[in-house]
Design goal:
Number of strands: 7
Number of helices: 19
Oligomer: single chain
Strand order of the largest sheet: 1-4-3
Order of helices and strands: EEHHHEHHEHHHEHHHHHHHHEEHHH
Shape: globular
Helix content: 55-70%
Radius of gyration: 23 Å
Structural class: mainly alpha
Length: 383
């Protein structure tokens, strides 16, 4: 497989994996995976609390990164070394080294000048139509760009003037999202945006109808995962749809690198491949503007199973004698089942439906975390 791709002609876009990841999603993961010790080795040493604050405000980006690593075959990195300095201390991309150690997950993409010019002109035309950045967001965005060493200064003009330094930086931030949206359109790919950037754009310019429809489809699961069994209100924002990060954290790895290795190992698990195929089938329907009744029914069944496990009396048990026909020939199995787990247990035994078990575990893990940032902070400072 190619690990480096250069785009010069319109035909070259066909080589790109069908997903576009915002560079700030990659950068959040890059800084998190280095850990505190990696940050301290940088010649331009950053204040640890400033770096952690930037990571904490981008937990949604970390979720997007780990989901993409697990669910996508390969992830293109468009001109990443132009957007950010090559590395914080030894001149290489730690993120690429860690992700591509056993298989080519990350692909470096360089867009040639002519191919870039076409997308740039469309992005600038869209940029000038955007409303001003909300005053409450300006300081937060600039602080984050500084913490993450955002060095990209594209040649953007404001009515023949460059504007102030801060205006240039904010323009670059928003322009980057528009540019990557253009790449997404040219490749027919999904566009995984950094949450902050997504909130800044008008739905008409960068919104995804599929993403909105998907959130509506998974609304009940999102409601369950947003509830807390101990009555505490979750203090960190997680995606509306089920995400892998809380599930990964439940294994209590001791460093960000171990967490990444667990995610990379999951890529090849058969039940994850089933889950990936199931999500792709849903996405295919949503792209056609429909929400199949079978998907809605299945998701509602999973939601009912989760609620049953979470709320039923843990002490009330029954004994069932089950005969498996065609699954385990001539086998009689007696199993004492907790009523709280009964429906979920039946769902998990269905052949070809192991992704249901995975989805249930993801939702329950997400529900248990009211402060996922505390666990992430502990990992980051330990590395």
């Amino acid at each position: 497989m190619e690990t480096e791709i250069r785009i010069e002609t319109s035909d070259d876009w066909k080589k790109i994996p069908k997903v576009v990841v915002d560079p700030m999603v990659f950068r959040t993961a890059d800084v998190f995976l280095r850990g505190l010790k990696g940050i301290e080795k940088s010649p331009d040493k950053k204040e640890p609390e400033q770096m952690w604050s930037a990571i904490r405000s981008n937990i949604g980006s970390l979720c997007a990164f780990f989901d993409a690593v697990i669910l996508e075959d390969r992830l293109p990195m468009y001109d990443y070394k132009i957007t950010f300095t090559p590395d914080l201390y030894h001149g290489k991309h730690t993120l690429v080294e860690l992700c591509n150690r056993d298989q080519p997950v990350l692909v470096s993409v360089t867009v040639g000048l002519e191919a870039y010019r076409v997308v740039k002109e469309a992005a600038i035309a869209a940029l000038v139509k955007l409303p001003p950045v909300p005053a409450g967001s300006t300081a937060d965005i600039l602080r984050e760009m500084s913490a993450f060493d955002w060095e990209w200064r594209p040649d953007l003009w404001r009515d023949e003037t460059r504007g102030s330094e801060n205006e240039q930086r904010l323009d670059a931030f928003r322009y980057g999202g528009l540019l990557f949206s253009g790449y997404s359109q040219l490749t027919g790919a999904d566009h995984i945006l950094q949450h902050k950037r997504a909130r800044l754009y008008l739905a008409a310019s960068l919104g995804s109808n599929r993403a909105n429809d998907e959130e509506a489809l998974f609304q009940e699961l999102a409601r369950i995962s947003g509830e807390s069994g101990n009555g505490l209100q979750p203090l960190c924002e997680l995606p509306q749809t089920p995400t892998f990060l809380p599930y990964l954290l439940k294994f209590d790895d001791e460093s960000p690198e171990e967490l990444l290795n667990r995610a990379l190992a999951l890529r090849n698990k058969s039940f994850v491949k089933e889950y990936r195929g199931w999500r792709q089938a849903i996405a295919s329907d949503l792209d056609k503007g429909r929400v199949s009744v079978k998907w809605e029914k299945e998701i509602n069944q999973i939601a009912a199973a989760i609620r049953k496990e979470l709320k039923a009396d843990k002490q009330c048990n029954v004994t069932l004698s089950l005969s498996y026909s065609g699954i385990v020939p001539e086998a009689q199995i007696e199993k004492e089942l907790n009523l709280a787990e009964t429906l979920g247990w039946f769902l998990r035994q269905l052949p070809g439906r192991r992704y249901r078990k995975l989805l249930m575990r993801m939702v329950i893990a997400q529900r248990e975390y009211t402060r996922v940032d505390k666990h992430l902070n502990k990992l980051w400072r330990a590395a």
